[in-house]
Amino acid sequence: MKREELFKHVKETLVKEFECDESAIVPEARFYEDLDLDSIDAVDLVVRLRNEWDMEVSSEDFKSIRTVGDLLDVLERLTGGAAQ
């Protein structure tokens, strides 16, 4: 998957599973402050994506994720741009 496809999938997941406002989901959006997710939601989101693409997210990677763009960076690196 290309970054745009990853973004589309992340956006769909945030809207469907976490009831986020679609218009608020931009790469600069902060999970806690802008999208009103709590730490449990953030863990749930990463676990869902990890399971979908069968990848391992390290604690360092997880701690580095503050924005949608940060998550896309990690997903892009871990999937080698080839998520399924």
What does this molecule look like?
By secondary structure, the protein is mostly helical. It has one domain: Non-ribosomal Peptide Synthetase Peptidyl Carrier Protein, Chain A. Helix content is 58%, strand content 0%. The chain has four helices and no strands. The longest helix is centred in the first third of the chain and has 16 residues. The radius of gyration is 12 Å and the shape is globular. The protein starts with a helix and ends in a 5-residue tail after the last helix.
Give the SSE layout.
Blueprint: H1 3-18, H2 39-53, H3 59-64, H4 68-79
The named CATH superfamily: ACP-like
User: Do you know the CATH architecture?
Assistant: Orthogonal Bundle
Number of individual domains: 1
> Which structural class should the secondary elements be placed in?
mainly alpha
- State the major sheet: none
In N-to-C order, the SSE pattern is: HHHH
| Rg measurement, Å | 12 Å
Count of helix runs: 4
CATH topology: Non-ribosomal Peptide Synthetase Peptidyl Carrier Protein, Chain A
**Name of the CATH first level:** Mainly Alpha
Instruction: State mean pLDDT (0 to 100 scale).
Output: 90
CA(first)-CA(last) distance: 7 Å
Dominant shape: globular
What's the number of extended β-strand segments? 0
- Estimate what percentage of residues fall within beta strands: under 5%
